[in-house]
């Protein structure tokens, strides 16, 4: 595993564009820190500071930061599809196979790189969330601080699933721009299918089915936190209640898609005449 990971890291770090994109991918999550320093001037009468409103209290901080950080995943998605596109355009994929790398090892090297960068990103977000929480949170009990760290697991699985999907599209079309376009096409397709199911059955059934779609299942791992923040400020409003927790079956669905995307990537490479 480490041999294949080291091989892939060398390829990425020797490419100037990939190095820049990887750097940006790891720097952008730090902008989550800016959320804690945002001050809103209300018509000149008083100033609201988000950090003082309790939105960065434990355990909600784990939910808030992982949700915002996951919005930056598209930058590393460019790295994933580019590393496949470069393999084909530079003919390095053929050279790797000639040098003794099997097709299975080739795909695994890509997956290990995806898992490695997803893990690094998760650790960074975990440290950022912990630091912001320790500074702003009014709770310092250990059980409260670490109560919802499963959002970090959800964040890792979400990145792993999304980048594995990018890997599959990269292998499918062999061009970075087209692979990214396929992500947009998949997003539109999911909503078209959802609309058709809703028209044929009802919204409840359609939503249940939609939760198994690739992109929607990844989104479901970390629901938007805004409604939860509102719930904490207005607990008497029952209409604000919604399910924001991380569930094991949601993780299982995304891991299932991840395994399928990696397997299909291998099948595509195995059948292709290089």
From TrEMBL:
UniProt KW keywords: Membrane, Transmembrane, Transmembrane helix
Signal peptide start and end residues: none
Keyword Phosphoprotein: no
Name of protein: ABC-2 family transporter
Example of a GO MF term: ABC-type transporter activity
GO cellular component: plasma membrane
The organism's taxonomic lineage, starting at the top: Bacteria, Pseudomonadati, Bacteroidota, Flavobacteriia, Flavobacteriales
PANTHER family per the UniProt record, alphabetical: INTEGRAL MEMBRANE PROTEIN-RELATED (PTHR37305), MEMBRANE PROTEIN (PTHR37305:SF1)
Protein source organism: Algibacter lectus
TM regions (residue ranges): 20-40, 60-84, 111-136, 151-173, 180-201, 248-269
One Pfam family cited in the UniProt record for this chain: ABC2_membrane_2
Transmembrane in keyword set: yes
């Amino acid at each position: 595993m480490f041999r294949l990971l080291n091989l892939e890291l060398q390829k990425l770090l020797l490419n100037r564009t990939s190095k820049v994109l990887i750097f940006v991918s790891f720097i952008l999550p730090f902008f989550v820190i800016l959320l804690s320093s945002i001050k809103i001037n209300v018509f000149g009468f008083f100033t609201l500071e988000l950090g003082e409103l309790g939105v960065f209290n434990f355990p909600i901080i784990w939910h808030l930061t992982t949700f915002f950080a996951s919005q930056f995943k598209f930058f590393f998605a460019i790295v994933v599809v580019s590393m496949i596109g470069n393999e084909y355009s530079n003919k390095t994929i053929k050279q790797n196979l000639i040098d003794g790398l099997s097709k299975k090892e080739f795909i695994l090297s890509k997956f290990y790189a995806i898992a490695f960068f997803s893990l690094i990103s998760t650790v960074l977000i975990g440290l950022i969330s912990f630091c912001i929480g320790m500074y702003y949170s009014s709770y310092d009990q250990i059980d409260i601080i670490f109560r919802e760290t499963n959002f970090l697991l959800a964040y890792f699985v979400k990145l792993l699933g999304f980048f594995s999907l990018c890997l599959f599209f990269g292998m499918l079309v062999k061009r970075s721009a087209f692979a990214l376009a396929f992500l947009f096409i998949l997003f539109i397709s999911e909503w078209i299918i959802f609309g058709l199911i809703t028209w044929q059955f009802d919204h409840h059934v359609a939503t249940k089915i939609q939760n198994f779609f690739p992109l929607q299942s990844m989104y479901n791992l970390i629901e938007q936190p805004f409604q939860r923040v509102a719930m904490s400020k207005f607990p008497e409003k029952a209409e604000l209640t919604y399910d924001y927790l991380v569930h094991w079956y949601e993780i299982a669905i995304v891991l299932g898609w991840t395994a399928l995307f990696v397997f299909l990537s291998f099948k595509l490479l195995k059948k292709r005449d290089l």
